[in-house]
Amino acid sequence: MSIIAFLLSFVGSAIFKITYTPRKMRKYTVKWSDEIGKTYPDLSYGEGAANKFDLYVPTDDSKDTYGLIVYLHAGGFTSGDKSDDAKMLQWLCSLGYVTAGINYTLAFSEENPNANIYTQSMEIKESIPSIIKEAEALGYNIDRMAISGGSAGGCLALIYAYRDAKDSPVPVRMVFEGVGPSSFYPEDWKCYGFDEDPVAAAAMFSVMTGQKITEEMFGTEAYAELTKEVSALYWVDENTVPTVMAYGVYDKFQPYEASVRLDKALTEKGVPHEYLVFPHSGHGLQNDNQMYVEYMTKVEEYLEKYMSE
Description:
Blueprint: H1 2-12, E1 37-44, E2 52-58, E3 66-72, H2 86-94, E4 98-102, H3 117-137, E5 142-150, H4 152-163, E6 172-178, H5 198-209, H6 221-227, E7 243-248, H7 256-268, E8 273-278, H8 289-306
Parallel strand pairs: 3-4, 3-5, 5-6, 6-7, 7-8
Antiparallel strand pairs: 1-2, 2-4
Helix pairs in contact: 3-4
């Protein structure tokens, strides 16, 4: 029952804050037109049916090099689509970046019984060289990148930025994300009762990671090793990329407590980061509009600082 509750509620988390545009947030949208940029939809990066990406390029193609920003969609790892983030990607492209939204094989379904967070993260890793190659074929030479996302997309963005940056074809300069799970400590996942039901926690985390996990493993090095590939927290070190992250105190879909762990790790390692806590909001960051403006302001500041030519 805990697993079913998790799946139902996390699927409901697909609607992320950026789908709502309060007045103060309208500066972070743009009326997309040929004067701003062009969209190349449904380009392939692999053999899977979901291995597609949408590429947005600015009309100004006169620069020697461009920064790439990838935004990964929300949907609890089980739903969502790259088109959900078109407005965000268009706005980022209007700032002069090449941008891309990526689809990945959705998990926990009869059609894709072996898909999980790890396989999704590997698809994201596989997609980046294809995106850069396609951009260069269109005349946009990519020499740096940032990655972002919301919810499940935030989780996958953190994994790429922390785990896979060393293998990226271009330097990863920063990551920005909202409400993405960064670790899987059962005691943090109180929203599903996993702190009091280790059997359910083990079953759920087995499905999410694609690893065989038992309740006896919790708190051991073996558990840490099995979940490391999908836990951005475990990859934090002195070389971790600058990070902007936003979390709601009343999040019922993923544990706010995990974000406290992540903030602590980044602080201890001296990683430049902004940790924005939304004191009245849940997973959708819906009750703190001024805080959301602050989050986007920090995103702009970090883009200017770390993604400039």
